[in-house]
Amino acid sequence: MRLTTIKQIILDTETRARTLDKSGRPEALAPVYETTLTALRLALGDDDPQPAWERVVTTLTDTHRRLIVDALDAQPLDQMRRRLACVADIPELTGFGSLEDIYALIGAAINVGAPRYNSGDVRGCAALYWATINLITETPAVRGFPGYAKAVAHLKPMIDLDVPVGPFTPAAVDAFAWELRHALDAVARIAS
User: Fold this and answer.
1) Which of 72, 138, 179, 192 is most deeply packed, by most CB within 10 A?
2) How much is the average pLDDT of 157-163?
3) Beta strand residue intervals within 114-177, DSSP E
4) What is the DSSP string of 10-65?
5) Where are the domains of the chain?
6) Dihedral of CA 132/133/138/139: which sign?
7) Radius of gyration over alpha carbons of the chain, in Å?
């Protein structure tokens, strides 16, 4: 399945959800999001080898596993919506050819994440940075190059953070967004 197809499915899901919400059927929203996540997960499967973007999407669509991005929202409906938004933010990336490719991905994420943060969408910013870090750690080097292992090793602890049982407080959401941003900034300063 192509990532463009997945993103179209997400757009269709959002359109359907808005229609249901406007027609006074908010109880139907959760099943719509859950069905989309489950269908995407089944369509992707667990076949190896998967491209890097597909591994991240597989993680995000696994509704049986709690992820740290779930702590960004208190309600299950918002958590499912957030996961789909993360998938929509992922670029179709299969490998890095140089450290500059990693820098470009980080720059693109910051160019979207910083305006989100500044407009008050701190959760959306944090989710984008988290998805970007996951993508970097899952994306192999096409061929070895200096700095790749150091970049991945620096970001790996961000993937291994403990997942809280409940939602983050607003202050914790802000702190999480900044922790992710600082990790991305540190990788962007790695010299080859």
Assistant:
1) 72
2) 94
3) none
4) HHHHHHHHHHHHHTT-GGGHHHHHHHHHHHHHHHHTT-SSPPHHHHHHHHHT-TTS
5) 3-188
6) positive
7) 17
User: Tokens at residue 29, please?
Assistant: 């929203």
Contact 149, 140 (CB under 8 A): no
Decide if pLDDT at 167 tops 70. yes
Alpha-carbon separation of residue 123 from 8, 51, 81, 128, 163 (angstroms): 23, 27, 12, 9, 16
Give the residue among 62, 58, 56, 55 at the shortest CA–CA distance from 79: 62
Identify the sign of the CA torsion 96, 98, 99, 104: negative
Q: What is the mean pLDDT of the chain?
A: 94
In the prediction, which pLDDT does 192 show?
61
Q: How many other C-beta atoms lie within 10 A of the C-beta of residue 35? A: 12
Query: What pLDDT digit, counting tens, does each position of 66-91 carry?
Result: 999 999 999 999 999 999 999 999 99
Q: With contact defined as beta carbons under 8 Å apart, do 127 and 86 qualify?
A: yes
pLDDT at 49: 76
Of 151, 127, 157, nearest to 139 by C-alpha is 151
Q: Are 126 and 173 in contact (CB under 8 A)?
A: yes
